[in-house]
Design brief:
Blueprint lengths: L9 H13 L8 H13 L10 H5 L11
Helix pairs in contact: 1-2
């Protein structure tokens, strides 16, 4: 029986890389897979090396922009 990965969110991070490669590195075309990685990172409380790249990807998502008051 295969052992579970010790690195959470690896699949989601790989899916983003594949999506970016397929879409000429345009993150706007990969928002769904980026959101899946964000969800995974939230579930594991960002306890994954793959969550470190999430902050840069979220800057490209119009839904996630912060508004300064």
């Amino acid at each position: 029986m295969p052992q579970p990965s010790k690195e959470p969110c690896k699949k989601e991070a790989c899916d983003i890389q594949a999506c970016l490669t397929k879409n000429n590195f345009n993150p706007q075309r990969c928002l769904k897979v980026i959101e899946l990685l964000q969800s995974c990172c939230e579930k594991c409380q960002y306890n994954s090396t793959h969550c470190a790249s999430l902050s840069g990807l979220l800057k490209t998502s119009p839904k996630k922009e912060k508004v300064d008051a």
